[in-house]
């Protein structure tokens, strides 16, 4: 029986292994970010690349708000050159994290995207931090 799933044959297992292992060089997930942060020494800077209003309503604890359009060399020069950045946005329906990752990579910075964004964080059962205005 042929359907949309079986119409194109699956990749050779070795090709599949190489493909899926390589994805980890570009992506991480909410659970791994949460666990890394809990260690006290995550080894990365977490950037919420959404606008300030959305950040204030709820963001991943420990994240720095830097909208993707404001990722420029002069701002990133305040971090050591070997800093790993993990970027996220609202979720899979949003391409802000990809935009932020592109900007960082163009600046020669190491970057990974946190899959799921805020939506994934909530789905994992983790709490968001809320910025309270004075």
Structural summary, described in words:
The structure is a single chain. The chain is an alpha/beta fold and 134 residues long. The chain has 6 helices and 5 strands; from the N terminus they run H-E-H-E-H-E-H-E-H-E-H. A 5-stranded parallel β-sheet has the order 1-5-4-2-3. Strand 2 (45-48), helix 3 (52-57) and strand 3 (64-65) form a beta-alpha-beta unit. The longest helix is centred in the N-terminal third of the chain and has 11 residues, at 13-23.
Sketch the topology as an H/E string, one letter per element: HEHEHEHEHEH
Give the strand order of the largest sheet, numbering strands 1, 2, ... along the chain.
1-5-4-2-3
What is the distance, rounded to the nearest whole angstrom, between the alpha carbons of the first and last residues? Answer: 63 Å
Q: Which word captures the global form?
A: globular
The count of helical stretches stands at 6
CA radius of gyration is 17 Å
Largest sheet: 5 strands, parallel
DSSP E strands, number = 5
Give a concise summary.
With 134 residues, the chain is α/β, with parallel strands linked by helices. 36% of the residues lie in helices and 15% in strands. The mean pLDDT is 95.
How does the SSE layout of this entry go?
Blueprint: H1 13-23, E1 27-29, H2 30-38, E2 45-48, H3 52-57, E3 64-65, H4 73-76, E4 84-88, H5 96-106, E5 110-115, H6 117-123
Parallel strand pairs: 1-5, 2-3, 2-4, 4-5
């Amino acid at each position: 029986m042929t359907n949309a799933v079986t119409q194109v044959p699956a990749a050779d297992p070795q090709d599949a292994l190489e493909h899926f292992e390589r994805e980890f060089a570009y992506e991480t997930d909410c659970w791994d970010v949460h666990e890394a942060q809990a260690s006290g020494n995550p080894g990365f800077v977490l950037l919420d690349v959404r606008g300030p209003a959305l950040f204030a309503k709820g963001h991943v604890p420990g994240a720095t708000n830097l909208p993707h359009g404001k990722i420029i060399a002069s701002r990133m020069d305040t971090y050591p050159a070997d800093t790993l950045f993990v970027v996220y946005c609202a979720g899979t329906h949003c391409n802000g994290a990809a935009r932020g990752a592109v900007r960082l990579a163009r600046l020669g910075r190491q970057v990974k995207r946190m899959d799921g964004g805020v939506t994934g964080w909530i789905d994992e059962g983790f709490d968001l931090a809320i910025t309270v205005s004075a």
